[in-house]
Amino acid sequence: IEMGDRDILKYVWDGKIPLCITLSEDDSLSIGTSEKFYVMIPRMSYLPLLYDKVRKHFQKFLSKDFQNEEIWMEFNGLPLKWHYPVGLLYDLLGESILPWNITAHVSKFPEKEIFHCPNKDTLENNVMSSIKEADTLKHRASVINSLLKQDYNQLWSGFLNDRFEQFWSVNRRLMETSSEEMYFKHIPIRIYNFNKPGYLQPLVRPVDDNDHVLTFGDLLNKVIMKSVPDTGPELIKCLIHGVQPPHDTPLQWMSEHLSFVDNFLHITILQQ
């Protein structure tokens, strides 16, 4: 079945991951394991948007000392970066196992490894800051500076409430080009390596100096392979939304259709 551009946007939007969340034994009043919390979360979403539900589910297992402490999540001993989209975290760490088993904590916050996220406003500020950075790369911030407060509210509310049409009625303006400018200035992109901390954020243009359209294969050869110098292309797997993009996919098209809510392409490099 041939998918149209709008179908692809909706397909990416609808992608979900099943989570199985267990309360850390350090924080639980019960002997042994408290009951697990199962939930489907959009790949585009962020862990802090689950915190209220997680707290409510495990409330009866928490001692009074921990009732109001900040929640943080961990997988195999590694604190999960809440400012990374869930789909990115899963592609990077989940090892293709479903449901993804992660652990919730309400004590011993790992100050040196992750930032605090005391409320949803912190998450909103973080995502909006990334959207502004992305538009600076794409349009020299001309679109984001033209948005009104109500546009921001509509964008964020559409995302929070899983309203595709509402979100895209604003987000499409951030993804548009004009007759004078057929391409973005640069492609907002971050590349994550399975065995390196942080990410690479190369300055990538959608076309070369001769206006030749650049593809994912060009990005792979010119940028990604240089970040894993001792590895051949056949030994790595590059994922976005859990899928390996074909090498002939134009970067401009990828940016318009496969970006996350923060308007960045988040690409994971894994060892085969």
From TrEMBL:
The UniProt keywords, alphabetically, are: Autophagy, Cytoplasm, Isopeptide bond, Membrane, Ubl conjugation
Segments forming domain Autophagy protein ATG5 UblB: 186-269
Question: Membrane topology per the record?
Answer: Peripheral membrane protein
Q: Which GO terms describe its molecular function?
A: Atg8-family ligase activity
- Fetch the InterPro entries from UniProt: Atg5, ATG5_HBR, Atg5_HR, ATG5_UblA, Atg5_UblA_dom_sf, ATG5_UblB
**Primary location recorded for the protein, binned into one broad class:** cytoplasm
Gene Ontology CC entries for this record: Atg12-Atg5-Atg16 complex; autophagosome; mitochondria-associated endoplasmic reticulum membrane contact site; phagophore; phagophore assembly site membrane
The protein's job, in short, is: Involved in autophagic vesicle formation.
Q: Which family does it belong to?
A: Belongs to the ATG5 family.
Q: Please report the name of this protein according to its UniProt entry.
A: Autophagy protein 5
Give the organism, scientific name: Argulus foliaceus
Q: According to the entry, what is the taxonomic lineage of the organism?
A: Eukaryota, Metazoa, Ecdysozoa, Arthropoda, Crustacea
